[in-house]
Amino acid sequence: MSGFFTTILLQPILNLLVWLYDVVPGHDIGIAIVLITIIVKIILYPLTAAQLKQQRALQDLQPKIDEVRQRLKDDKDAQAKELMGLYAREKVNPASSCLPLLIQLPVFLALYRALSIGLSSKNIDLLYSFVPNPQSINPKFLGLLDLTHPSYVLAIAAALVQFWQTRQMLKPPAGAIKQPPPDVAGSPGAKDESMAAMMNKQMTYVMPALTAVIGFSLPGGLALYWFVMSLLTVLQQQFLMKKA
Question: Which of 41, 73, 147, 243 has a beta carbon 3.0–4.6 Å from 189's, enabling a disulfide?
Fold first, then answer.
């Protein structure tokens, strides 16, 4: 598995990173990371577009979902069966939003390894024969930020953009899931609504906070990648929303 990961992901990303470092003006590793992020985003564009479309469709379907939950609140089996039928008729997959993230994770890990190798100038023997070996790589981004060390600025920026991205995706009518009235808060159907509202709240606030905390402990190069990726996703969401 390690050999497969190295051959399919790590080696191509490391070679692309070093090649971009060689050709970009000023030999700036930060600009090379930004360009890699743009390339990855272009490759994942169709998948992300499908994900955003599914999220919007699921959110537009929320009133029907709430009606089924309320009508069949005392029969969980019938409720689950009818919801599955509803998803099938509307061609909506509730789990589709996780797929791009799962695909990005190996890329993220490969980039982490590539940065560790490239910035430390060790094991550069993984380079292809046609990629020049720079022998050493300057870790400074724009001559200011050392991307081998955690960057609070980039970590916070990545968290803020992710918050913006989530708020944009969940804004009305998408974010119309609200807590149920107090007088029915204990009913099974209301518990489902509370769970949905809680998940939206976690997506909006907890995930960006987690991004910042993790970013504080990772090399700044990874925080830069996550910041640019989230920013590109925001722009893609705006483009697709206007197009819809």
Answer: 73
Please name the residue ranges forming H helices in 61-187.
62-71, 76-90, 99-120, 152-170
Q: CA 147 to CA 223: how far, in whole Å?
A: 9
CA gap 155, 174 in Å, rounded: 27
Calpha distance 59→101 (Å, rounded): 19
Per-residue pLDDT tens over the stretch 134-162: 877 888 888 888 888 888 999 999 889 88
Burial environment of residue 172 by CB neighbours within 10 A (0 to 12, 13 to 18, 19 or more): exposed
Say which residues have a Cβ less than 8 Å from residue 225's Cβ, sequence separation at least 6.
33, 36, 37, 108, 111
Sequence ranges of the domains in the chain:
2-243
Whole-prediction pTM value?
A: 0.72
